[in-house]
């Protein structure tokens, strides 16, 4: 038996800025199971904060009419649901979102969020042009809500994979939600991933965010209770006033 002293259980855990995939999943379980957050509630909080981050990176008064047009590309998993909420709030904030949602989930939450967007007259594209210049000319920026942590491009099927291939070629600004689609959430390997200008980390940054080198990085985690932040040793900047996002 080793005589080396073990760690003092009273010591505070080492603070860190990034969460592993397992830690991020554990944090979400804590919110859902212990704090009794609802899944729809978390998606709504994250989607609203994502839209707020867009307004901070691209303030409406500084944009031309064309630059206010936003293409939101949604996948069939939870990140896609966050993207639908983000699009709805961007419409409320007087941007002009359009949604491309090629693989619509049968999940009730996704269907409800889709209905809300349709009722607000947010247009849905039936296909994404493969001619990149058409997208560059039609939109001021793109929101990537295709893949989340742990979701590989091959898992979501051909339409999303083809959409990502097109998004990689765009010259207009790109905003990724939680992690850039195609990145490994742990290592940040991005051989098949996007290169966003803006990253919005949901709840807390994932490990791959350490490799992000774009213009703006926001964390949308004001809703995370202080006790949970301390438990997971999150070292994040403070939120100003009533802001729901903070710049990293």
Automatic annotation (TrEMBL):
Residues 24-236 form the YjeF N-terminal domain. It holds the Pfam family YjeF_N. One of its GO terms (cellular component) is mitochondrion. GO terms for molecular function: NAD(P)HX epimerase activity. InterPro entries: YjeF_N_dom, YjeF_N_dom_sf, YJEFN_prot_NAXE-like. It comes from the Eukaryota. SUPFAM superfamilies: YjeF N-terminal domain-like. Interacts with APOA1. Binds to HDL. PANTHER family: NAD(P)H-HYDRATE EPIMERASE, YJEF N-TERMINAL DOMAIN-CONTAINING PROTEIN 3. May accelerate cholesterol efflux from endothelial cells to high-density lipoprotein (HDL) and thereby regulates angiogenesis. May orchestrate hematopoietic stem and progenitor cell emergence from the hemogenic endothelium, a type of specialized endothelium manifesting hematopoietic potential. YJEFN3-mediated cholesterol efflux activates endothelial SREBF2, the master transcription factor for cholesterol biosynthesis, which in turn transactivates NOTCH and promotes hematopoietic stem and progenitor cell emergence. May play a role in spermiogenesis and oogenesis. This is YjeF N-terminal domain-containing protein 3. It comes from Piliocolobus tephrosceles (Ugandan red Colobus). The gene is YJEFN3.
